[in-house]
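Technical annex, item 7. During the second reporting period the consortium partners agreed on a shared format for inverse folding records so that results from different sites could be compared directly. Each record opens with the tokenized structure and is followed by the designed sequence. A conforming record, contributed by the partner at site C, is shown below for reference.
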């Protein structure tokens, strides 16, 4: 049984559903130690008193909020809960929204929710309501010392909670220069669009996350293994690797590249289907 990060309840009107919160992330970690390049000895960090210069053991370290220069209020884990005990124990649903209304840029960190004792029926009810309505539940939750806004959504039999970024945590894109959606303005031809649709159709398939893996991490480990086998583990090579030639500034024949891409997919056994919208148009004309 995985360890719960948080135990509390989903507050749904007057209904309270006891749940546990579990991390849904399983990131590949790539840990590096800091070394003194003269001796290859590890470099450590010290926790020390900035007034006396002496080391401070963990038992003597507390957290403090600086309210004036050099003056602090000491805060314990219990104080963080004491500030609002209900907020730290509740996933408080405040509204329901269409799932498509929350753009991906707001999603931050995923978590699993599982019912605790006597929470099974309420959990199943909320999950089924979200499935039937095709909506997400937007809620407030405090995790550790920070309040988050979050979206609860059904994924199969599970309820998944994804913390969301606040509006002020997302930078505005209004100053970025992007092409207009008017194809005439950027001079996209019908042939280019048709060939693009053929390429997209030829590369389309069902989403399977197991098809994807961290190839960069694998390449990095291969480089490390190569260094170990060669015995050059302490060699420092700061020369810049040669990158592939970039096409910036060149006039690109987009149609030729699209055609070549489609032909490449056909050569590798992927059928270049006719665009779905073109097939519909043909049937309509008939």
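Designed sequence (site C submission):
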């Amino acid at each position: 049984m995985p360890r719960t990060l948080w135990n509390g309840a989903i507050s749904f009107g007057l209904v309270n559903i006891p749940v546990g919160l579990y991390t849904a992330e399983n990131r590949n970690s790539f840990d590096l130690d800091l070394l003194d390049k003269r001796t290859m000895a590890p470099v450590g960090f010290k926790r020390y008193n900035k007034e006396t210069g002496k080391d401070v053991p963990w038992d003597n370290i507390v957290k403090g909020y600086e309210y004036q220069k050099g003056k602090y209020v000491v805060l314990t884990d219990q104080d963080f809960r004491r500030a609002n005990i209900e907020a730290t124990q509740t996933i408080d649903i405040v509204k329901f929204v269409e799932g498509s209304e929350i753009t991906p840029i707001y999603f931050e960190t995923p978590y699993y929710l599982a019912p605790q004792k006597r929470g099974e029926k309420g959990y199943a009810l909320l999950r089924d309501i979200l499935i039937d309505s095709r909506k997400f539940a937007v809620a407030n939750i405090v995790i550790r010392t920070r309040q988050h806004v979050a979206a609860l959504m059904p994924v199969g039999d599970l309820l998944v909670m994804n913390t969301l970024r606040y509006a002020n945590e997302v930078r505005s894109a209004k100053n970025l220069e992007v092409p207009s959606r008017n194809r005439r303005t950027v001079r996209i031809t019908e042939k280019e669009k048709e060939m693009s649709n053929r390429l997209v159709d030829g590369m389309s398939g069902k989403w399977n996350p197991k098809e994807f893996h961290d190839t960069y991490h694998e390449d990095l480990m291969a480089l490390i293994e190569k260094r170990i086998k060669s015995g050059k583990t302490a060699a420092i090579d700061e020369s810049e690797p040669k990158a592939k030639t970039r096409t910036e500034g060149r006039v690109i024949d987009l149609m030729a590249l699209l055609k070549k891409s489609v032909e490449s997919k056909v050569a590798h056994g992927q059928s270049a289907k006719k665009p779905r919208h073109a097939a519909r148009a043909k049937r309509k004309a008939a």
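The chain is about 25% helix and 25% strand. The longest strand covers residues 146-155. All partners now use this format for quarterly exchanges.
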